[in-house]
Each structure stands twice: as structure tokens, then as C-alpha cells.
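Long-time lurker. I teach an intro course on protein structure, and each term I like to show students one example going from raw sequence to a predicted 3D structure in C-alpha cell notation. This year I'd like something fresh instead of my usual example. Would anyone be willing to generate the C-alpha cells for the chain below so I can use it in lecture? Attribution to the forum is fine with me.
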Amino acid sequence: MKRIAVRYRRLLLLPLFAVSSLLCTTKADKRPNVVVQPKSSPAMVAVISRNDEPGGPANMDAIVLVEKGKLIRPYAEQSEAAQNKFGTKYFKAGRTLRVTFGGGEIGTATVTGFQAGCNNIHARANLLDNGRLPASLSALATDSDSLGRKASSRRAPTETERAEVMKLVREIYVARGTSRPLLKTITTTNLTATDLNGDGALELIGSFVLATKAKARRDLLLIAEPQKGTAALKASLVDFQSYKLPPEEFDSARDFIDQLDLDGDNVAEVFVQQHGFDGYAYAIYKKVLGRWRQVYSFLGDAC
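-- Reply from a regular --
Happy to contribute to a lecture. Here you go:
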């Protein structure tokens, strides 16, 4: 997520809002006065991204409120009054939030204010992470004192892991009708190694794109799990889309944002962002009975 108020239209975001049946600590040196919500109040989780301008404030979007493991929408998406009420409470200037990455705390973010976008509100914050958040990636920010208390497990994949993932990716594309000559045009948007269930064996999460000159597009969001005793991987989430780009060339790819165990079951939920036609949205995947399922969605913005 680069610029928060990206110009996208809402029409093609609609599939994201239907729950899909597809599928599947570092302490700050001197921790500021982190504002923690009372136990009776839901905890907020927001996505936080560095500004395009070096040294500028980070951008934040509220994604979800969490109460006893239940996921609650922060406010009515089309209500300016509800948005402003939420922003006044949760995005009040001076509030300091904990920042997590890979399921563990890496720093803090102090809110400087919020403003309206096209159809949603967006906050700004001063991020203090001692350089632990890569410039091109996003993290999560929360006012909870209990979420994200495990060690951060996220890292770049090794060459061996990358090779195994790409082998699996090619198999998935071929199984869905992609000709072998086109396989060399697959590009990796993001690939991360991280431990989602705390067993010490890292899953691989990645987004992949294949686009032809005829504007045919094939997008893949993949979670791959290691098979015990081998270097081989098996797919536990295959979110594959095949479509033709519209004249405006807006795509509907889904990209991994980060992970966080929201309900205390020791398996982190997976946060993603979906591109769209004049808009973008967020979704959360949860592992239910051994399968990854989309269980939540919320608008980022739409113009």
C-alpha cells in the first residue's frame, strides 16, 4: 500500500466482500506511553505503511476491531459520521500504538491525526521501528496490550525456499490452463517466509502475476506449508484469479500484508489487500478445520 487514497472504483471490489469458500519481540528501548484499550473495549488493528516521502509520516488504515476473538467492522463504511466518531476516538493525535510485523512487536507509532479520503478515513503517524520494517512492506498497528506478543518470525525466503515455491507456482498455473511457454513470464509481487502456527517450520506466503500482451491476467495468492522431513512444499491456500484487464488496466490481485493471531488459538490470521477498479479493500483469512478461508473484509477506499 503506497499512497493511501489511491484512485480506484468500487465495482470490482464486490467479490472480496463475499466470504470466500476457496481453499482454503523486540521491545522498544524506551517504550512510550502506549495507549491500551480497556479490557471491555474492542482492540483496534490497523495497517501501517511508510510514506512515499522519505522521513514523512506513515499512513494508517483501520481494518478491524477485535473483541474476545470476534472480528468487528470499525464503523459503517458509508457513514461519514461513524467514520469521524471512530477517528476521533482511535486516531486521536498523541495516541501511541504498538506496531507488529510477522506476529511480533517491532516498534511503536504515534498518531498525528486523521483525514477523509474519497470514501473512508486515513490516519498519519510517526513510526519508530529502528529500521525493522522494510520500506516496501506494511505492518500492523494495534492498541491491544496482548496481541502480537510472540517473537517476530517473518524473513525473506532462502534461495532453496524460493526455488521450491516457484516449482509449486508453476504446477498451479499449468493445472489451471496456462501454457508452459507463458510460465517464464510469471512475476513475484512478494514472497515471505514466516511461522503462522508457532511450530518452528516456516510457511511461505506469496503473490504472483502473469500478464499477457492481450491483457489477459492470472493472479495467485499462495500459502505453502513445508512437508515434514523434506524440502518440498504443499499448497494450503490457492487463491487463483483469471480475467482480462479492463481498458483502465486496474487489476484485482490480492497481496499479503502481514499476520497476527487475533483469537488466541496459536494460528495467526493472514491479512491481505485487494486491488480494485478505482478502489482497494482488505481481507482476513483464518485457518478453519485445516483449511484457509476468508472470514472478513473491509473497504480501504474507493473513489
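Some talking points for your students: The chain is about 10% helix and 45% strand. The first helix runs from residue 80 to 90.
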